[in-house]
Amino acid sequence: MAQNGLVWMGNNRKKYPMTNSSVMQPSDQVRNLLLNVVFKRPGDKDRKRKATMKGFKFAGIRAGIKKKDARDLGLIFSDAPACAAALFTRNQVVAAPVILGRKTMENGKLQAVLVNSGNANCFTGQQGMADARQCVELVAEALNIDPDLVLASSTGVIGAPLPMEKFKAGIPEAAAALDIASIDDFADAILTTDTCKKIVSRTGVAADSEKTFTITGVCKGSGMIRPDMATMLAYVFTDASISSDKLKHALAHAASCSFNRVTVDGDTSTNDTLVCMASGAGQAVIENDANFVSFQALLDEVCYELAKMIIKDGEGATKLASIVVKGAATRQDAFKAAEAIAHSPLVKTALYGEDPNWGRITAAAGRSQARVDQDKMDLYFGDVLLVDKGKWQGPEAEKQAALIMKQDEISIVLDLNLGDGTDQFLFCDFSENYVKINADYRT
């Protein structure tokens, strides 16, 4: 998948207009999302959401896969075989369910998805493949459907075999618990180090008929987040009628301007899976170009909101930041520079320390292999110009930039002044809690 991406200019988009026509442009809805997403934390009221998705049922149960008493086995069921598309990790160390899932998705149809947390079923050899296949067969048996219409996903610790006795008991229980209103339970069951459930639902209108359709997405992700496909588990559902081929194209576009433009720690997971299923149970039919544009815009919005939730919930994160690189010689150069800045531990720790350390940002751009000229760089923190044509603007400007750094959500813009290339990343800071969470992960 080409690494074209969302170019969002934050609160300063009028000051820093996009001029590169080769960059994939997001919908207007997506442009306005960066600083206004609200998400639920465990324990919030209204556990059962009033919104439902036509044609789908959900379940999330406690199967005993995790060490703690928590939901750890989720199930999605479509009343009828649904058109489907999926993207998977590019990591060469790949979990068994991903290997199996790639084969399953060749037919472009799904009716059920099983997701477990607490165990990644990765680096588990032939036994892991056999266990993944058995999970699929157990779901097919419990739901009386074709095994070729079942996808399995896993997330958790790498290297441990699946506790299959837990799955043998849990899958029938999950099947019996399926309910149209249980999406919260499913969202809870797929979490690992996440501190919140991540659910987004939006309704759109088909351009030619004014018939409505809904797109709902659920994801998990907090650590091991790097833009190299999806870098998490995400499941998106719609009641629209759309072909598998169109859905595949739409999902690739949505991922390129959302999940592939975020990073927590620069580590690509072995289990990344992004799935979209279309039940066709609603009234909207996505066939012509006008309707597809409407569908694409809404799918972009849902995926972008989910991606932002992941970064806001990054392991140990206290701040959310957007880095926009504009004025690059090419779009590829803008991507390289933005990616290097967003991944930099020095930049991320400065963000945590509320330090507008412009030297770390410009240095990261300089080592990114993008073409740069230090005497042409402009660097903004929010609307504060701290570096102008390579020159630091003095202590008063730095004082104003430091005030910007105290905010929970920060916009940074680096103008290379070499061309029209533009790209952006969302990222978070590194705190002591990131180290603690990952030091204690298996203990």
Count the strands?
15
Shape: globular
Helical content stands at 25-40%
Roughly what fraction of the amino acids lie in strands?
15-25%
What structural class do you assign from the helix and strand content? alpha+beta
Report how far the terminal alpha carbons are from each other.
37 Å
Q: How does the major sheet shape up?
A: 8 strands, mixed
Oligomer: single chain
Radius of gyration: 22 Å
**Element order, helices and strands?**
HEEHEHEHHEEEHEEHEHHHEEEHEEH
| Low-confidence blocks of residues | 1-50
Look at the structure and give the mean pLDDT.
85
Blueprint of the fold:
Elements: H1 28-31, E1 56-61, E2 73-88, H2 96-104, E3 109-119, H3 125-143, E4 150-157, H4 164-177, H5 183-189, E5 198-205, E6 212-220, E7 233-238, H6 244-256, E8 262-263, E9 273-278, H7 289-312, E10 320-328, H8 331-343, H9 345-352, H10 358-366, E11 378-381, E12 384-388, E13 391-392, H11 395-405, E14 409-415, E15 421-428, H12 432-439
Parallel strand pairs: 3-4, 7-9, 8-15, 10-14
Antiparallel strand pairs: 1-2, 2-3, 2-9, 5-6, 6-7, 10-15, 11-12, 11-14, 12-13
Helix pairs in contact: 2-3, 3-4, 6-7, 8-10
